[in-house]
Amino acid sequence: MPLPLGHAAAGLAIYELYPAAKPKIEWWKLWLFVGILANLPDIDFIIGLVYGGNGNIFHRGITHSLLFALFAGLFAFLAGRKWPRIFPPLGFIRCTILVLSHTILDVIFSESGTSLFYPFELFHSAGYSTLWDIARMTMTESYRDAGIIIASAAVIISVKAVERIRLAKREKPAPAGPRP
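User: That's the sequence. What structure does it adopt?
Assistant: Structure tokens below.
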């Protein structure tokens, strides 16, 4: 199961791959917003902790669905339009893809079911999880995210290198040739 750092790294890589205009905003606000969107489906874990003391009560349920990604993407898009100084205006499709990236990673890397097509299917994680369990997993089992983080870093570095090459080609002056 990918942990928050793996989800955030994948979200940043997906953000860099998406060919839309990049907003003019401080990089840390952008990275924070992308990381929050990429981890947003795990809000169900926090709700489970608050509601019943067990983070797995609702985990991988409704918030891990395509429907949730659409609504959360719409909300993030509208927040970016209304409050662009707080929320980067990323566009509806980009926001939706960032939220959905979390669920896709969980489908690929987790053994338990994920409610991607809610309301037609509904799964929840089994077991009992506390905040301490997640902190322990984050500290001791984050090595599992190493592959996701390395692959995401490779994507980001590659995209940035291609952008620099394209920029250098545009700024390169035309060769001086013989004048007629």
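The chain has a mean pLDDT of 85.
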